[in-house]
Amino acid sequence: MSEPPSSWEDKTPERLYVITGGRSGPSTAVQLDLVTLVVAKVPARPEMQPEHAAILRMCQSPLSVAEIAAYAGLPVSAVTVLVGDLMTARRVHVRPPVPAAQLPDLALIEAVINGLQKL
Amino acid sequence: MAQKDIPPEAARPDAGTSWMMPAITAVAAVCLIGALISSSEPVRTVCVAVGAACTAAALAEALRRGRALTARHSQIAALQHALSRQETEAVRLSQVVLTEAIERLRKGQLPEEVLTALGGRGGQGNRWGNDTALSPRFRAALQSVLALVIDTVDNEENLRHSAQRAFVNIARRVQAIVHQQAQEMREMEDRHGRDPHVFGDLLRLDHGTALIGRLADSISVLGGARPGRQWSRAVTLYSVLRGAMSRIIDYQRVELHSVSEVAVVGPIVEPLIHTLAELLDNATRYSPPHTRVHLTAAEVQSGIAVEIEDGGLSMSEEARRRAERMLAQAQSGIDLNDLGETPRLGLAVVGRLAQAYGFQVSLRSSAYGGVRAVVIVPQHLITTTAAATGTAHGIGSSSGPRAVPPAPREHPVDRASAGVAVPRPAPASVPRPTPAEGGPATERTATGLPQRRRKDRADFYDAPPAAEPQSAHDPGPGMWLEAFHSGLSGGSGQDAQDARDARAVQDTGDTSGSATKGA
């Protein structure tokens, strides 16, 4: 993480459960993953919750959930809650990660690697 | 004891000589009559002589009694003077001297100093030492009463102080543990933040720890100490309000509305958080569980007014007076005995903090039918957000891959009329929510949790007909990446869209697998 959590703790009196409203996971049906890409649909507005606004500002270009968490200094679950809120409000687009079933077979990749090494 | 100074014989008339006057007068009268009716010369002469002697004796007795009477009168006057002096001094002791002695002791003066200053035993300013109207015994009695009272009050004060110190000491230990715990919880939340179940449990534990911390803070405040940790730098008001929310049980019912973009100076942060937390706790505790509690902060002439409004039962005028009296009493010092067996610490703590840090707290009936608590933070305790911690609201405004200038927050008060020299960016051209739109609507998320619904969201709901086609045909920012991915998966854009939708549906039933994959 780019920001050590201890500094966050020392700088603000608010706890994580207030930021997430006591929720530990997103309320949306879409599964948010570490590598899920998030991109803002609308610009950040001043009257939004600051975390929402910060995510919208960050996600003007696509950013993964893991990256958002790192930049914001928040745990991944908290970020998924916040992104879930933004999805419900239709303020972000979320690109689910490439499904595992659509990834090439592991054996195929190994074969390709082997083939490349033999070159 | 004072009566002993009066001679006993003076107390009642002289019984031994009181019969003499009538007897002498009678004898004189008889002699006079005898002299008048007697014909013989010698008898008349004897009668006249006896009569004259008797008259002389009567005159002498009258003179003597007159002198005795005068002496008695002056004696009575002296006694009355002494009595009135004693009465004055007794009243003075009870009404002035003892009050002042207790006052001085409460202020922390040493008992010897107080005794000397107020004319106690052997003191330089011996109040009663050279007053001859007071007998030595009476003076000694007054002095011993004063000394006794001072001793007793001093003992009581010592006892109270040591009890308070013990309170504060224990509270400090609890606070230290809670603070340590909170930090560790935060680390754990980061460490296990990827598992929603563990994360949820940690949030609940974190919440419980914060509640314990607030209780320890309350005990500390009632013991006459600071509520808790000190903040070296200013903290934004928004963070302070959410900090207060994080210390109550029903924080999810608190709806945070517009907040002026100002910060609170470091030394005031913790007291303000604690004050607001106690008021929020009262508001959520004494209103129905399904109602919301509204929290706003706006600039006023004298500083910042933080308002807490609940939709509970309205306070009767009598209850309101009682609450105000409780606040006022707390401001003049708290007697721990008054808290009773089921202490309602909240208002006592609020009053104490308000008195110590200069907040104004008032309780009124709310327009929502419940109670409206207003805390006014004076202007000199407010500073600009620029002086506050760099990472406002926990997220650095400049963090992120690109430094985007932070959008200005909407300001509830007209800046020109506020008259505060706080440099702020110009307000964004956001349509301000008008009060006429009705009460703030709440909605439930899919999990049944209450969710704040912003009034401006109507803009976004109205927008979709325009926004949807744009997202479908015009690749917005980031959509090129989607095309890239779909290209990788070997399908056209439309196929990828379908596959993604199918996958999204499939993913809902397969949460754990994906989560662990992500980790």
CATH class of the domain at 234-392 and 408-422 in chain B: Alpha Beta
Oligomer: heterodimer
CATH architecture descriptor text of the domain at 234-392 and 408-422 in chain B: 2-Layer Sandwich
Q: Which H/E pattern describes the elements of chain A?
A: HHEHEHHEH
Radius of gyration of chain B: 44 Å
Tally of separate helices of chain A: 6
Biggest interface found: A-B, 76 and 92 residues
Neighbour order of strands in the largest sheet of chain B? 2-4-5-7-6
CATH superfamily of the domain at 234-392 and 408-422 in chain B: Histidine kinase-like ATPase, C-terminal domain
Query: What strand line-up does the widest sheet of chain A have?
Result: 2-1-3
Overall geometric form of chain A: elongated
Give unreliable regions of chain A as ranges.
1-9
InterPro entries (chain A): DUF742
Protein name (chain A): DUF742 domain-containing protein
What would you note in describing this structure?
The complex is a heterodimer of chains A (119) and B (519). Chain A is built from 6 helices and 3 strands, in the order ααβαβααβα. Mean pLDDT of chain A is 80; it is low at 1-9. In chain A, 45% of the residues lie in helices and 8% in strands. Chain A has 119 residues and is mostly helical. A 3-stranded antiparallel sheet of chain A has the order 2-1-3. Chain A has one domain (5-118). Chain B is an alpha+beta fold. Among the domains of chain B are: 234-392 and 408-422, Heat Shock Protein 90 (2-Layer Sandwich); 462-503, no CATH class. Helix content of chain B is 55%, strand content 9%. Chain B contains 15 helices and 10 strands. Chain B has a 5-stranded mixed sheet. Chain B has a 3-stranded antiparallel sheet with strand order 1-3-8. A two-stranded antiparallel sheet of chain B has the order 9-10. In chain B, β6 and β7 form a beta hairpin. In chain B, α6 crosses α7 (266-285) and α8 crosses α9 (345-357). Chain B is rod-shaped, with a radius of gyration of 44 Å. Residues 1-11, 390-394, 396-444, 453-480 and 490-519 of chain B have low confidence and may be disordered. Chains A and B meet through α1, α2, β1, α3 and α4 of A and α4, α5, α6, α7 and α12 of B.
